[in-house]
């Protein structure tokens, strides 16, 4: 009896964990566990319970997932580089200490590892994998519903409606809403777009293109995943996230590429390729038309083409579309790496070297850089590279970067193993994993936080899929 109650408790907490993933900046957080940061995942609360109910017991009683070994090596390298940084006499010239930054970043990394390990070991059967995806979809259905409600003030703006929605948003996120873009249940529109494109859409694209569903209901070719993909695509438009749109298009192309061939008898190889190309081109044309029509009314998004038709605009194209400051961050991170190539400067210490290593160039065309470098009372002057790979390179050096890349290769190995498997469900998980890894490369050029759950959850589900299907194959073969 106690074991059955424990199993039910594990299942309930696991469902709550997945259901709450879309809320990433929950305002009601104690200061000791991230209450003063922008990244405050609501799923951290059920995660704490899962660590004791599921993660630790299974790590001690079952084989450790193979990608966890290079991840452990990365954690050790990051810890070593951070400790070594204390011996270098870093002079903090902003309103935060080196010790505070180090502690926060190590806790953040530990939180990310906890997300990954929990998701990687929690599902232990195919039924539990399907159960996991159903609750992930359920959480995102609520997020998409809230995003659809927010889209109302973009289509039919009234101050009263916007004020009401923004008031309710205060119970979900620490940041208010944008009048011209939707944020869903996240901190800002770009976070919402990346969340949809990274954590949700790889599963939906893989499900639609492989004709797979984790639900019992379907009507001919229509599935819940297809409906959810269409809904998510429409909601994504109102984030006006350039990165989100690109990631959507890339996944659409790759999903068509991975789609199992269903050639007609009369089709030649080139005929099949041409037919798929026409299908992809038709869908992409519809997307471009919708994006252009919707984006024309949004000043932020329409910058992509208004630069070329407005004679009064000065400066370069990259400055106008707010990319030049990102390049400055990336170049600064690489210059920091060149000075400490092996161990790096320690987690979180990029901000202390930023002004010194910033490339020598005029700052007036990039207001964001001027804002960060101008002292002001109460202003947060912490600067991050906004690039996952360059942050790892600058702050942990070649040692940490090698371990982190080995972890990604381990996840890639899990995805390929599933994709090349004989079972349709395994191929579905593999296809989603490959899509997710491609999306991660794009997301890594704008996000560098280890606390955002998207990366860890997707990689964890791919790892769990490989472990479950390997165990199933061993069981079916009768090998003890």
What does this structure look like?
By secondary structure, the chain is an all-alpha fold. It has one domain (2-306, 387-477). Helix content is 65%, strand content 0%. The chain starts with a helix and ends with a helix. The relative contact order is 0.14. The mean pLDDT is 86.
Task: Reconstruct the topology from this structure.
Elements lengths: L1 H18 L24 H18 L6 H18 L12 H24 L4 H30 L3 H11 L19 H21 L14 H14 L4 H17 L10 H27 L7 H4 L10 H4 L3 H16 L10 H8 L9 H7 L14 H32 L4 H20 L9 H25 L3
Number of helices: 18
Helix-strand pattern, N to C?
HHHHHHHHHHHHHHHHHH
Query: How large is the share of residues in beta strands?
Result: under 5%
User: Please, how many domains?
Assistant: 1
Average residue pLDDT: 86
* Unreliable residue runs: none
How would you classify the quaternary structure? single chain
Distance between the termini: 29 Å
The SS-based structural class is: mainly alpha
Specify Rg, calculated over alpha carbons. Answer: 23 Å
Helix content: 55-70%
Let me know the number of strands: 0
Could you say which overall geometry the principal axes of the C-alpha atoms support?
A: globular
Q: Mind summarizing the main beta sheet?
A: none
Features:
mainly alpha; globular
Briefly say what this structure is.
With 480 residues, the chain is mostly helical. It has helices at residues 2-19, 44-61, 68-85, 98-121, 126-155, 159-169, 189-209, 224-237, 242-258, 269-295, 303-306, 317-320, 324-339, 350-357, 367-373, 388-419, 424-443, 453-477.
